[in-house]
Amino acid sequence: MTRSSVIRGVAIATLLVSSPAHPDPATCEKTIIGALRSFKKTHLKAHGKCLDAENVGKISGPCPDAAALLRIQTSNAKAVDKIGAGCSQADLTALGFSGSCDFEPGAQGAEGQCAVLPATTPQELAECLKCWKSAALTQLIAVLYASHASELCGGDLGATSPGCSPLDCASPLPAQSDLGDSGENDCQRAIGKVGIKYFLTREKVLEKCGLAGATRNDCLSDLKVQIALDKAEVQKEAGIKKKCGNRDPVADPPFCCRTGTGNACMLATSRQDCIDNLGGTVQEGKECVAGSCSPTPGMSTITWWESCPDASCGTTPLSSLDDLIVCVDSTADGIADRLLCLQLGTGWCP
Description:
The protein is mainly alpha-helical and about 350 residues long. It folds into two domains: about 270 residues, no CATH class; about 45 residues, no CATH class. It is built from eleven helices and seven strands. A three-stranded antiparallel β-sheet has the order 3-2-4. The protein has a two-stranded parallel ribbon with strand order 1-7. A two-stranded antiparallel sheet has the order 5-6. The termini are close together. The relative contact order is 0.13. The N terminus is likely disordered.
């Protein structure tokens, strides 16, 4: 996804809080990355757990629910405390933070809310970075859990989204509904679980390399880094294929609105129409044929994007599970690149 370069100046506003007595920018940078890594892990896994429960009807949603929010807020507070205790004004100056949170001038929506935050103390910088990361991480979850993207992003997936960084060209929008306790949902859980693990592994491997002083290009060409990233890629692909079989991504798979005894059904314009207006029960993977819910022959699908919601804008349609896996790759890699640029500076910007 095309992103403007992160603004990283050398001038920094006067810091007004207590900080370490002796400047140590290397330790400060390690503290920032470690604290935010823990926050990212909690944010992603709390959302995933909530969505998995919502899909099978264990909770009513929306996600994140109260339990997920509590986990995220607790991790948030710990990250602020660690960064505040581990960084000084001199550290932040040496690392190139400018005292501004306006990393992408002209940003709107959730990102625009981040851009106006103060960033003149270690604690403020922590909140600033976490705000940008939260928007990007929610974007990742919205791509992985396609049938709940609108819920996660506050009903708007574009530049003005109040809940996430924008998803480019997110059309056609997948059917927004719970998947139920089904084989399709088993596939969705796998996409979420291994997609999150792949993203966190990629970031951790590259962060470790970056902390040693290497640039993005240096790290990506390092043999050890390549081996680690290839291993993560193999595990991600195997995890998705194990649970998804040969399912093809379809934005709006067939469904049947069961409205009576046995397999009696009525035609519905949408899943919500079936529930709200016809008083029916949605049965996925079936169609209403001659008044009876019948299996759709030869179809095995997952409610997902038919076009990867990135800057390609429909030029790379998704028609197979392999295409879906490539989209998970490009989305996770692109978001990881943006966050690494944010943390490690312009030498890490794509």
